[in-house]
Design goal:
alpha+beta, seven-stranded mixed sheet
Length: 171
């Protein structure tokens, strides 16, 4: 499996992976990557494009930069083969190597299988569900509400809690 940073020439591969053309979305992400605000990774298996993940480096409410994994996607005929797990592990190692101690991701609330997938890999739901609105321009600017959970994973162990197994209880 080859995981590398995406480039503009990869638009045709994103179309293959997704089964649809979303050039505006992919170009926007590539622009963010060029401004060092994100990493867009594309994945190949036996020279075939099979998946992608977008890692956004976003400023949170207390003005620190946090990595958010968005749109981990594996081509439908390659699912169930451990590819998503490998992509996620690679993304986690990448942000950890940049000094981040935790990472975040969002998923749509109706995607119950994603909740289980991420929980199995150490992510926990934080907070309450959030909402976003998507405007469908091809459907007369119809707005649809998307509800999603945010999850978080610690990438490093806290030194102060490492020795909890060696606790001595005193009366």
């Amino acid at each position: 499996m080859i995981i590398r940073e995406a480039i503009k020439e990869d638009l045709k591969y994103f179309d293959i992976i997704r089964g649809e053309k979303l050039h505006k979305l992919h170009l926007k992400r590539l622009k963010e990557q060029n401004k060092n605000k994100a990493k867009y990774l594309i994945i190949f298996l036996n020279k075939q494009p099979v998946g992608h993940i977008f890692i956004r480096y976003k400023e949170d409410r207390v003005h620190k930069i946090i990595p958010i994994f968005e749109d981990l996607f594996v081509r439908s005929n390659y699912r169930g083969k451990g590819i998503a797990t490998k992509i996620l592990e690679h993304a986690e190692k990448l942000v950890k190597s940049k000094g981040f101690k935790e990472c975040y991701l969002d998923f749509e609330i109706q995607e119950k299988h994603l909740e289980e997938f991420y929980e199995h890999r150490g992510y926990i739901i934080i907070g309450e569900p959030s909402h976003s609105y998507l405007t469908l321009k091809d459907k007369g600017n119809k707005k649809i509400k998307i509800t999603f959970w945010t999850m978080k994973k610690r990438l490093v162990k806290d030194k102060e809690f490492e020795n909890l197994n060696n606790v001595e209880f005193v009366k």
